[in-house]
C-alpha cells in the first residue's frame, strides 16, 4: 500500500539516486559518477527553491518525490550536514561549475517563459518525480492529487510548473493542466510551462 509523508533529510541519498536513474544522467554526463554529481547539484537547487516536500513509499521503499513552493511561505532550512553533502567541492571544480551553469541557464530559460504569460501564480511544483520501477501504477496520480489538496488547504487558487521533453509531460495534459508557453532550447529539447486553476 502506498503512503505519502513529509520528506525526511535521511531520504536524501535515495532521492539523489532516483533523479540520476529516472533522467539517465549517467548516460547524459558520460558515467555514473558524473551523473550522481549533477543529481546532487540539482537536488540541492530544488531544496533551495522549495517550501514543502513530500515523498511516497510502497512497502517501505521510497517511490516518488514532490517539492512545492508556496508564495509567502518560508523556504526550507537545509541542515549543515546536508549542505556539506549536497553543495560539495569536487576535485574537478571546472566540471562542477559547468553543471551549476547548466542549472542556472535552465532557470533563466524558465524565467523567460514565465515573463511571456503576464500572470502570477500562488504556488509552483518545483520537482515531481516517480521511480521508473513504479511508474504507470497510479502513484504519480495519487501524489499529484495529494499536492493539489495541500495547495488548496494553504489557500492557493492556482499553481504552475516547468517541465521539459525529457519528462512525461503528457501526464499534465491528462490532469487538465494548461500549456501556457514553450521554448525549444535545442532540436530535441523543449521546456514547457504549465498552469492550473484550483
From TrEMBL:
Gene3D superfamilies from the UniProt entry: 3.40.630.30
Q: Which PROSITE patterns match?
A: GNAT
Q: What SUPFAM superfamilies does the record point to?
A: Acyl-CoA N-acyltransferases (Nat) (SSF55729)
InterPro entries xref list: Acyl_CoA_acyltransferase (IPR016181), GNAT_dom (IPR000182)
Domain N-acetyltransferase, by residue range, is: 2-198
| Xref: Pfam families | Acetyltransf_1
The molecular function GO annotations come to: acyltransferase activity, transferring groups other than amino-acyl groups
Stated name of the protein: N-acetyltransferase domain-containing protein
